[in-house]
Write a structure and sequence with these properties.
Shape: elongated
Largest sheet: 3 strands, mixed
Radius of gyration: 28 Å
Number of strands: 3
Order of helices and strands: EHHEEH
Distance between the termini: 57 Å
Helix content: 25-40%
CATH superfamily of one domain: YefM-like domain
CATH architecture of one domain: 3-Layer(aba) Sandwich
Oligomer: single chain
CATH topology of one domain: YefM-like fold
Number of helices: 3
Strand content: 15-25%
Mean pLDDT: 91
CATH class of one domain: Alpha Beta
């Protein structure tokens, strides 16, 4: 957390905004006392929309069928 006085904040405002956008928290002080806090914006969460791949994915009818013995042996290291 970085603390700057108002004069420095006005002089370097663009740099401070860039630092806050990169996750840093900046405290702006007036007469040596904290007066404001510059923090990064929260990014909006992406909304999951169910069914967007409907009709685009096909699952085989034997998807959950037991594996053949030779394939199963390879998985088990036999």
């Amino acid at each position: 957390m970085q603390t700057v006085n108002i004069h420095d904040a006005k002089t370097n405002f663009s740099r401070l905004v860039d630092a806050a956008a990169n996750g840093e928290e900046i405290v702006i002080a007036k007469a040596g006392k904290p007066a404001a806090r510059l923090v990064p914006m929260e990014q909006p969460k992406k909304v999951r929309r169910f069914g967007t791949l409907k009709g685009k994915i096909r699952i085989a009818s034997d998807f959950d069928a037991p594996l053949p013995n030779d394939v199963l042996a390879d998985f088990e290291g036999r």
